[in-house]
């Protein structure tokens, strides 16, 4: 017998047993030990029969030396001679050991006592059944569960069992460990605000809850259900809380809630049909919310795909899926949220926030909302009052804004000093009313002395309701805030406004099919728009300047297809104290031509580039097609004397074709006196500028109105081809009406192959002129009756660089069918022209518009 006992003890020793392969069952491990490790004195291998005999011998001894007793028998002293006993109670048997050092009270579960002898349960695997729980889903097990948790701090529920509880379970132990093993806590429907939780922990060092289901009664429709405020799991004023693989069903208030708990981890949980907040965390140092599945009650309450609000909706409260406030490090990653009544993910007044790889569908309001609101009331380690270090990436947000709340967004960021929003896919709010954005980034806050940036990169934004912006960024002109938008694809327009820093907008693909402006830059300081592809049913790109500081806009390598203006600018102030600069280069701007439009009622409208109210316009190497005007520059600034360079306009090397009226137009708007210090229009190709019978059609048109003065004007090397014009057009047209408004005009090497007179002008507008090619003069002899004659003397400008003071007017029998040129004579600085009305009707003043070519 001793031999068998020795063999069995050796077999079952921890050292030997643990060396067996982990993949073997306990029986196979024993066989492995017998066959491979234990050899008797005669070197014979121990057989399975030896093992069975040894086990039987040990069992016989154990039964004689370890008695089986009831609790009452232990209390009667029947175990006083034993060190190990088996105690049977609550339909189960547990092993207890005598502990001479214990002074614990007899609790009828883990300690039994007779006199001073105490027997303590020989396990750390505590179950509710040890304390009287039935786990049958019918008997109220709340008292047993509460007693077990209070006694041990560690609790193992029975696998697959259901524990019915009629009151909340709480603990204030140093550490709490709850292992559900797939069990269910079923809450009673009589829970009230005095017992408003399933599990509640306060002042704990470490809380762990895992693998448990909390099944609430469905309160929806019951009287005052929204006032019951029942939490599934509540942890407050603790150091660390970890909640893994917990399922909470039909919770009236907040399934998981923590406050003033430093480290919070919630992973792999399922929150199903709650009515206020799904997960809420307040005042934490580190928050990790990952891999959870959160399903709201949207469909049940009438948030149907058509957007109609169902009955009882206004009673719901917040209805937020995940909410974190006043915390330091926040990670909300790879969660699935569906049918939330309000916002799906909401973070307020926190630092180092990451919201990534979440799937959000059918949300009542915002998909992701991150903002800073009120100062922090009682932070744990002092997080700042501003929202900082925000990262929102790789989220899928679809079919949001189902409650028709104006100002909502798929991704909303409000009151922050910087963020990265990248690689998100969002859209489809077209089934609802109100206004909703794809990405809405507003009201930037920036601490004094800080510079920061909003980065919006590689997002895909689908359909948005009511033509609202796919991306809306509204900054703060008091802060040096930059914005960088790159690689975004949208199905509707984008707006960026009120940035004092630098805005960079590049490599974006914007499709705007709802009218308005595809890209709207509003009151910026410095903006760079590069390599964007834009289609718009309205205007392509709008630039509205701010008045407080210098402004610069640079647009290069953009491809714009628009049914409105390609690029246009506006300004609220016509007389700022700072320069404004536009630079547009190598853009392709095209207006689509619609077939079947013989009257041109649809085609050839608007302007390719329409800029005004700036001190510098530099427009180079752009390709423009199918507008009314190709390039329109208007209203240079009235600048203070402190700005030395003055107003400068350069329009060079552009390719402009198929215009309704004009290729390039420079003019003044309004009645304020203005000066163009330098105007250089050179080396442009302008073709086919009268696609409709338009008056004033010309390749280049310069107007001074009554108040515009051109100090230095240079028109050199422009090429005109009007072979496809529907009606004649001038090559270069000067239509000034006030004397001596063009000073130092330089014309040379401009080429026109087809069309009428090359340059048409009111020569009284000039002081000094240089022209290397013939040009023409306009004059009006006044009213002429049939057969009457008139003589007109025109003051001619001095032709610089050629020393000429006389002019040659090309002769011809008739100027028009009714006007005959009878004589002309040139003198120093003048040309005298005599004409006669050879027609049969009188001619009114201003109706002749006569033009005579002048050869230098």
Structure characterization notes:
This protein is mainly beta. 7% of the residues lie in helices and 44% in strands. The protein has a 61-stranded parallel β-sheet that branches. Helix 1 packs across helix 4. It is rod-shaped, with a radius of gyration of 44 Å. The termini are far apart.
What are the salient characteristics of this protein?
single chain; 856 residues; mainly beta; 61-stranded parallel β-sheet; five-stranded mixed β-sheet; 6 helices
Can you give the helix content as a percent range?
under 10%
Structural class call reads mainly beta
Mean pLDDT: 77
Large-scale geometry: rod-shaped
- Contiguous helical run count: 6
Q: Alpha-carbon distance between the termini? A: 137 Å
Cα gyration radius (Å): 44 Å
User: Which residues form runs of ≥5 with pLDDT under 50?
Assistant: 1-5, 7-20, 36-43, 60-64, 299-317, 374-385, 799-806
The total strand number stands at 72
- Measured by DSSP, the beta-strand proportion falls in 35-45%
Biggest sheet architecture: 61 strands, parallel
